[in-house]
Design goal:
about 1000 residues, mainly beta, Maltoporin, Chain A, five-stranded mixed beta sheet, disordered N terminus
Length: about 1000
């Protein structure tokens, strides 16, 4: 493992000379294009067009108009440009103050009149706000907006100001009181696993959507959030968030921002209605702090620059209605009202970026980011006692290396190359007091205490390195780009089970209680260590852009090859299992896919103010280690098993032989007879999921939109979006057949809060026959082998982007949409089949149409944000969100006593067995909407050449108390809120630019 890390570091530096990133524009860059005409309206070929800006390494980029009078200059960094048009016999035309952002093509045309070259016509106009050449949906968060609005400067903050973007309700941020790394964004039916975070156009996800690294906002020039319709450079169609880093210049400049708040500056937003639902203590912010500084300047003027940024931040939140255990380790949970539970996090970040101008046309960037993070009570909610969370560290160390090379070979040819390597470790440790404790789940309330579940502990390493290379060829009306993406990855997960010996025999267990009495236990086959490798994730793409008069076609094609494998593994003997050896498993998976990407943009009236856009593309579901992990023989060899337990003597010790799989003493038979075996695993994958062409989960995305400039610096966008998924996978237990199940019904509890007031018969439930109980031989295969399954999103966005005058920025809009899923064709007929689609949801039991055909109501969200300059140096920033409420569910624990009369026998799991049954169809009932208003008031002070801004922020200014999560276990605590939006919070801050 250490050897591959050293090699990765060397590779990061070496690959900067040969391999890297790009598009018809490079990711994170923009373009300037247009048509040049004479005073009669005829097009002018042969005009020299120069784009100049201090952000360009060569200072000036040049193009020449073609026979259609068109020109195109691509791969331009964000910044302010001057565009100059010259041609013999005509006066020179100069357009100044063109502000260019990432992934935007500014339409800059010119009308040249006959005259002398010495004559120059200078036009200082507004920057274009409509892109008439590209169909990609995106959100640009400039550095100005990033630090002017009262938002966190991570993914949750970008989602807060992007109509249609969704994060989990429990990640709704108030003043920075949430872990930014858990704020995964989805939009228009996309999935979190398909989202990507990028630095300077190159990804740094560790595995799936996970990353382990935080954006350092002081290091950002701007942030580009691509929301769909991506070009052929991207394999997955989820949200792509790209931080474009700031680079040093020829003068030293710096930046500092700091803010702080604590519990005395937060309000109580507990209402009588919430008290009536059982919530008597609300989540409360205890502490939030941040200090973020940056400095940039020349090490060698005009040759070598440094930009460095450093940040420390943290938060601590009190958890509503949750307390430390006064009787920790006693098998009983006794809340200690004097010690409220809290979740906390700290982070330190150090970033260094070197920019070297090797020559007029060559630029090399090298960056090094080092971070140290403690999530000191991981995922602590009101359903976990503090000792049942883990301590997770991102350190040891964790760092990100990137090297990139940009070469302007000529006015028509651009070459880019780069490497990004992430070294990422994270141990999950036990809380103090839980070192020798057994985890206990109280089933009646779904509350876990005493310790975390055994599988929560351990040490993980997920390192990856990726490289990109591209060549772009540009003429006046044509831009062609081809490139290569490659990625390698390494993963190791070692369970650090630790803990006590259970009962008189060896073994480590978790307990499940019902109303304080033991009913079952879970055994673990320690030791457990598994490894996976990503041998190659390769993408080859071509992207061609043609402009014919007012129509621009963006035609792309991508080929993807993905190869994962599991290396040879050896595990020593444990309490329940002998030593085990596992051979290498290859091609898990070996996928091949070809994805077309087609888009068109039409300048409706030819004036650059109205654009009609259409986009259609196929995307594959993202994967790094997931499929290899699911096919790892250690992972699939059944590492845990559950058995019923009757604690006859009340000593909380299972008086039985835990090493025996059969009924003995107080213990029932284990529920999976494959436990700890190395013979055929309980779950295998069919070849139609692992190898071949187009066997990977995929989605198609279609969008149509109209973008209209309403007036100078004001644009309106209206779009329709449709996403539909394919290649669903299903899991079938082939040890069983439909005839091996018996059906039964139960009577729902009588409750006016349930559909129809409850008391109804719930049928379509199945229990395996006792003779087949514990027999498992799962095979994952294509769901189409059993019937049709669908998942389709339809939605409409309406957005506005306005800069009506200096100091005023207004953005926002609304989204109306819904995602429909249907798996009824098979679920109602095959109880041994479970469906798992890109949504990650599992249909685990046959039911009625109401449960397998999910058609939620149309859901609407509204988001607005803006900054406003006021007299005397004052200004304000505002963000407003109005979001759908969370869905309501009711999971009912039915006992054998309730089930046996209908089933005609005891449950196969025994007389003490239970079954969890959903009482409410999914996505049919919702809590009240979530509303949040955040406001910033600030005052600017000029200190000679420096600028100081004093800030006062009001987060959740209306002191709203929408519900973010509830107890979904039907019983006395059902519908009790477990988290609401944090109360009004006052935060003080300063910002210094020097």
């Amino acid at each position: 493992m250490e050897r591959h890390r050293i090699c990765s570091v060397i590779l990061a530096a070496a690959m900067s000379l040969c391999i890297g990133s790009g598009s018809a524009r490079a990711q994170g860059t923009g373009a300037i294009a247009g048509v040049v005409k004479d005073s009669s309206g005829a097009v002018l070929p042969g005009v020299t067009v120069e784009a100049s800006s201090p952000v360009l390494i060569e200072k000036i980029r040049t193009s020449v108009t073609d026979d259609q009078g068109q020109y195109k200059i691509v791969d331009l960094l964000p910044g302010v440009y001057t565009v100059t048009f010259t041609m013999t016999g005509f006066s020179t035309v100069k357009r100044e103050g063109i502000e260019l952002t990432s992934n935007f093509t500014a339409n800059i045309g010119a009308e040249m009149r006959v005259g002398q070259l010495e004559e120059t016509v200078t036009v200082s106009g507004q920057s274009p706000v409509v892109d008439v050449q590209n169909a990609v949906q995106q959100k640009i968060v400039t550095r100005e907006i990033l630090f002017a609005l009262p938002i966190n400067k991570e993914l949750g903050g970008y989602a807060a100001i992007t109509p249609g973007a969704i994060i989990a309700a429990t990640q709704q941020d108030v003043g920075g009181n949430k872990d930014p790394i858990s704020q995964y964004i989805t939009i228009h039916g996309s999935k979190t696993n398909d989202s990507r975070v990028l630095l300077d156009g190159m990804r740094f996800n560790a595995e799936g959507q996970g990353r382990g690294f935080y954006f350092n906002p002081a290091a950002a020039q701007e942030v580009s959030v691509e929301l769909g319709g991506q070009t052929a450079e991207f394999e997955a169609g989820g949200v792509q968030v790209n931080m474009i880093p700031k680079e040093g210049g020829n003068t030293f400049s710096g930046f500092f921002v700091g803010n702080y708040t604590n519990q005395t500056l937060s309000s109580d937003n507990l209402t009588p209605a919430l008290r009536a639902r059982g919530l008597n203590v609300v989540n409360k912010t205890d502490l939030i702090y941040e200090a973020n500084a940056a400095l940039g300047g020349p090490l060698l003027k005009n040759r070598l620059w440094l930009f460095t940024a450093h940040r420390t931040w943290g938060y601590r939140n009190l958890i509503a209605g949750n307390f430390y255990n006064k009787t920790q380790g006693s098998m009983v949970y006794t809340p200690d009202p004097s010690r409220q539970a809290y979740i906390d996090e700290t982070n330190r970040t150090h970033s260094f970026r070197f920019t070297y101008q090797a020559s007029k046309r060559n630029k090399i960037n090298f960056s090094y980011d080092l971070q140290d993070t403690c999530l000191c009570h991981v995922s602590l909610t009101s359903q976990l006692a503090p000792e049942a969370s883990q301590i997770r560290y991102y350190h040891n160390p964790n760092y990100l290396l990137q090297a990139k090379w940009n070469f302007v070979a000529s006015n028509k040819v651009l070459i880019e190359a780069g490497n990004t390597t992430l070294i990422f470790d994270w141990p999950n440790l036990r809380q103090p007091g839980a070192e020798n404790a057994i985890s206990i789940l109280e089933q009646s309330t779904a509350y876990r205490y005493n310790a975390a579940q055994i599988s929560s502990y351990g040490h993980r390493i997920a390192d990856q390195s990726n490289q990109r290379f591209s060549v772009t060829y540009v003429t006046g009306s044509h831009a062609f780009k081809t490139g290569l993406f490659m990625q390698e990855g390494w993963h190791r997960h070692e369970y650090d089970i630790g803990g006590p010996i259970a009962g008189t025999g060896p073994g480590l267990v978790d307990y499940t209680f019902l109303n304080g009495a033991p009913i079952s236990l879970t055994e673990w086959a320690e030791p457990i260590v598994f490894k996976e490798r990503l041998r190659a994730n390769v993408g080859v793409f071509v992207q061609d852009q043609w402009t014919v008069k007012r129509l621009t076609l963006n035609l792309g094609l991508r080929y993807d090859y993905f190869n994962g494998f599991v290396p040879e593994q050896h595990l020593t003997a444990g309490p329940f299992v002998p030593a085990r050896d596992f051979a290498e498993v290859d091609c898990v998976p070996c996928w091949q896919d070809v994805e077309p990407r087609l888009a068109a943009a039409y300048d409706v009236f030819g004036n650059g103010r109205t654009a009609l856009k259409v986009n259609l593309g196929r995307f594959v579901a993202a994967d790094i280690f997931t499929t290899a992990r699911n096919n790892n023989p250690v992972q699939t060899s059944v590492n845990s098993t559950t058995r019923t337990w009757t604690d006859l003597n009340g000593n909380y010790i299972p008086d039985c032989d835990l090493a025996s799989p059969l009924v003995n003493g107080e213990c029932g038979r284990i529920d999976n007879l494959n436990f700890g075996n190395t013979n055929p695993s309980a779950t295998t994958y069919a070849s139609d999921t692992l190898t071949g062409y187009r066997h990977r989960n995929f989605d198609w995305q279609l969008s149509t939109s109209v973008q209209q400039q309403l007036r100078s610096n004001v644009a309106l966008n209206v779009g329709y979006f449709r996403t539909w998924w394919g290649a669903f996978w299903a899991t079938e237990n082939r040890a069983l057949a439909p005839a091996d199940y018996d059906t039964y019904c139960i009577t729902a509890p009588g409750d006016q809060r349930l559909p129809g007031g409850g008391g109804n018969q719930i049928c379509g439930l199945f229990d395996v026959t006792p003779t087949k109980f514990g027999q498992v031989r799962n095979v994952v295969t294509q769901a189409s082998n059993y019937g049709k399954q669908t998942e389709i999103y339809n939605g409409v966005d309406v957005g506005i982007n306005a800069r009506p005058r200096a100091g005023v920025v207004i953005q926002g809009g609304l989204n109306i949409g819904r995602a429909e899923t249907n798996s009824c064709e098979v679920v109602l007929m095959r109880p041994q089949v479970q469906f798992v689609g890109p949504s990650g949801s599992t249909v685990a039991e046959p039911r009625s149409l109401a449960f397998c055909n999910v058609v939620p109501p149309w859901l609407t969200q509204v988001k607005l944000s803006g900054t406003f300059g006021l007299p005397y140096g004052f200004r304000t920033g505002i963000t407003y969100q109005n979001l759908p409420g969370i869905p309501i569910y009711a999971t009912y624990v039915a006992t054998n006593t309730q089930i046996a009369p209908s089933l005609g026998r005891n449950l196969a799991s025994g007389a003490r067995g239970t079954v969890s049954i959903d009482l409410i169809p999914p996505q049919s009932r919702f809590e009240d909407r979530i509303t949040q208003l955040d406001v910033r008031f600030s005052r600017l002070f000029k200190l000679q050449k420096n600028r100081l801004e004093a800030q006062l922020d009001l987060y959740n200014a209306l002191n709203a108390s929408p519900i973010l999560s509830i107890n979904t276990r039907y019983g006395p605590s059902w519908l009790t809120p477990t988290e609401i939006l944090a109360g009004r919070l006052v935060k003080f801050g300063i910002q210094l630019d020097f």
